Fold this sequence. Notes:
The chain is mostly helical. It has helices at about 5-10, 45-55, 55-60, 80-90, 105-120, 130-140, 145-150. Helix 2 (about 45-55) crosses helix 6 (about 130-140) and helix 5 crosses helix 6 (about 130-140).
Amino acid sequence: MIRPFRSETERYGEYSKAGEFVYDHPFQWGSKRTGPDLHRIGGKYPNIWHYHHMIDPTTMSPGSIMPAYDWMAENDLDISSTPAKIRAMQTLGVPYPEGYDEKANADLMKQAESIVADFKKNDVSIAANKELIAMIAYLQRMGTDIKASR
Ligand code: HEM
C-alpha cells in the first residue's frame, strides 16, 4: 500500500486507492514492508528483469538483501483448484462472467506462453507452467488499473 505522503508517491508512484482492492478477498493492506513497495511495480521493468531478479536479486540490484526465489523456476504451478477459486470469488461478488471458472486456466496458459515467448528474445528458455511465470504475470498486473485508465 503506497501511502499519500510525498516521500512515497515520489518513489513508488500514485498512492493506493481503496477501489483498487475492491475485489481482493481477503484484501491485503498491511503496515509492514520489507523492501520497496510493490503496488505500482506493474510495467516498471521488462519481464526478463523480473526473471533474473527472482533467480538472483543481486544480479539486477547489486547488494540486495532480498532472498533468491530460484526454486520457483523449477516448481510446476498447481492450477488444479483454479476453477474452484474462481467460483468462490464469484460468490463473494467478483464479476467474473458466468462459466469463467472453466475458461480461466486457458487464459492463464495463454498469458504464460506470451511471457515465455518474450524471454526467447533474450535467449532464456523456461516452461510456461512454472511458478515463476505466474509470479511475473502477477507482478506485471500490480497497480495497473489506474495506469491503464490514464
Ligand atoms: C515472492 C516474494 C517477493 C517478490 C515477488 C519480490 C519482488 C521484488 C521486486 C519486484 C523488487 C524490485 C522493486 C523495485 O525496484 O521497484 C524487489 C526489491 C527488493 N526486495 Fe523483494 N520480493 C520478494 C520478497 C522479498 C523478501 C522476503 C525480502 C526480504 C528481505 C525482500 C527484500 C527486497 C529488497 C531489500 C529490495 C530492494 C533491492 C532490490 O531491488 O533487490 N523481497 N523485490
